[in-house]
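Lab notebook page, bench 4
Experiment: in silico fold of construct C2
Operator: M.H.
Input chain length: 309 residues
Purpose: comparison with the prior construct
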Amino acid sequence: MIFQCTIATPLIISGIGLHSGRRITMHLRPAEAGTGIVFHRSEGDRSVSIEAVSANVVDTRLATVLGKGGLSVSTVEHLLASLNALGIDNLHIDIDGPEVPVLDGSAAPFVDLLENTGIRQLDRSRKFLAIRKPLTLIEGEKRVTIIPSRFFRVSFGIAFDHPSIAQQSFSFKCSAQAFRRDIAPARTFGFLQEVEYLKANGLARGGSLENAIVIDKNGVLNPEGLRFTDEFVRHKILDSIGDFSLLGYPLLGHLKAYKAGHDINHKMVEKILANPDHWKLVEFSEESLREARRGLLPSFAGELLPAKA
């Protein structure tokens, strides 16, 4: 995780948009170090490049939506979480519709496709945003806190007045292996009454039991049941990883959240960026980079130093 990465070869991902119901195709292309994650959105004779950073968030009501120049890309959080967990820093994404395909409602298909296409290491060190002092944001029952940590951790709690969910909590230390095993397979979820309301108002047109957990008053409607007994809170962690990737740097900090969603996640990202005295950018020392090139650093190790200007 010392060096920036991109994908090894181009990749095409197609699927249905959760809200539009449209068939959408994305062309993922390798990018040079320092590019970041960039969506290239076209509609008619208009086209725009939208960097995956917090400043370009235009909506957080039903999903995280990035926009610029009157065009937008919705439901980016599952793909961004996958890229973050796999350490992919630089990528061009050409997309021909208004939202990232939902696939099966989780991040697992993205992880499989990205790993199959390969990840290529670039010859530039990765900079991390390291939390130095705690920050907290509270809105009613919703709460998000970030505290210093040597690693990126997420501890999340939820509570729903429904026996299929009730109270759940999960704590997760982010790594590619742990994300693939514990978080990526967790699907998005919704209550049948809410789904019917959204469909009646022209949304969730692509939603089905094939790409979401749907719950009615009696329980989970999906014939196959749940992938984890606590799949709901794990999916909330998945969303949070995607949302906090919009800091623009890999995060070193422990995120603690309760009943949080896209809106308060985005506000917390903005609060972090607005308080630079609570964090600093760090990177591995030149000696660590030389050792990494010689294969002497087998894991995330080495001395972290202030990033160079």
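Observations: The first strand starts at residue 3 and ends at 7. The longest helix spans residues 231-244.
Next step: discuss at group meeting.
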